[in-house]
Amino acid sequence: MIKNKVSTWFENWFDSPYYHILYKHRNIAEAELFIDKLVDFLNPPIHASFLDLACGKGRHSIYLNKKGFNVVGMDLSPENISNAKLEEKSNLKFYVEDMRLFAVKNKFDFVINLFTSFGYFDSEKDDYATINCVSKALNTNGLFVIDFMNAHKVIENLVLHEVKIIDGIEFEITKKIENNFIVKRIQFFDQGKKYNFEERVKAITLFDFKKYLEVNKLKILYLFGNYNLEEFQISTSNRLIIIAQATKLD
Predict the structure, then answer these.
(1) Which residue ranges form the domains of the chain, and what is each CATH number?
(2) What are phi and psi of 201, to 5 degrees?
(3) Which of left, alpha, beta for 90 (phi over 0: left; psi -120 to 50: alpha)?
(4) What separation in angstroms does the CA of 190 have from each of 16, 26, 83?
(5) CA 112 to chain CA mean position, Å
(6) Of 55, 54, 240, the residue nearest 148 (C-alpha)
(7) 94 near 81, Cβ under 8 Å?
(8) Alpha helices by DSSP H, the chain
(9) Number of helices (H) and strands (E), helices first, in the chain?
(10) Is the dihedral of CA 163, 168, 82, 7 positive or negative?
(11) Residues 14 and 76 sit within 8 Å (Cβ to Cβ)
(12) pTM, two decimal places
């Protein structure tokens, strides 16, 4: 049982409308192209079951479901899930869940965790706990797909300060490395009120992921470095995309 209270930064930030304003540039077409590439590569059987872990408002879940798959989306943000539930149907469901604690066993053919939706927790025990939940949720030989930033490249090319003006709001963004976390602080004024938010994502490397996966009986099959599923290169790849298989060995 995890005794530490969930950190408030991601509860507050991901539930805020300003999160979606700042990241509105995220391209739905790009997300769908990635899913297309992934589905073509994985070649899931018709009606395969997917769990979209940390699904946000469900854009990946909804698109996978349109392709004919059974999809469950889980996210910690009640606001995100409230929006996603507007798209629910018999084979597309959304739930508010903590990725460290959800209890599902041998239910899914695929678990996906996309767009750096991992590495938020201070304790490494929570990272292991999340991967343990994923492992338990997968059927025998099921596949786990995690799409994370390439921490090496992000650190090497860190932009320490920038200003973005979106929908008339001037977001001042500063970044730094702090105790192996990439910390992004976001400050802005809106309607005369000052807001301060923070993102803290652990600089998890391929070496770290190998530890998390191996302990939880997941074997890495493939590594990719971008959404076109090209080979991962530690110095140049924008993404670290891992496909691992549940072994279910005793």
Answers:
(1) 8-150+205-246 (3.40.50.150), 154-199 (no CATH)
(2) -120, 125
(3) alpha
(4) 13, 22, 23
(5) 8
(6) 240
(7) yes
(8) 8-14, 17-22, 28-42, 59-66, 78-84, 124-137, 151-156, 206-215
(9) 8, 11
(10) positive
(11) yes
(12) 0.90
pLDDT in tens, the chain (250 residues): 344 444 458 888 888 889 888 887 766 777 889 999 999 999 999 999 999 999 999 999 999 999 999 999 999 999 999 999 999 999 999 999 999 999 999 899 999 999 999 999 999 999 999 999 999 999 999 999 999 999 999 999 999 999 999 999 999 999 999 999 999 999 999 999 999 999 999 999 999 999 999 999 999 999 999 999 999 999 999 999 999 999 865 4
**Across the strands, what pairs with 171?**
164
Q: Could you tell me the strand order of the sheet in which 92-96 lies?
A: 92-96, 70-75, 49-53, 108-113, 138-149, 239-246, 218-224
| Cβ-contact 130, 164 below 8 angstroms | no
Please choose, from the candidates 48, 55, 67, 60, the residue with its C-alpha nearest in 3D space to the C-alpha of residue 107. 48
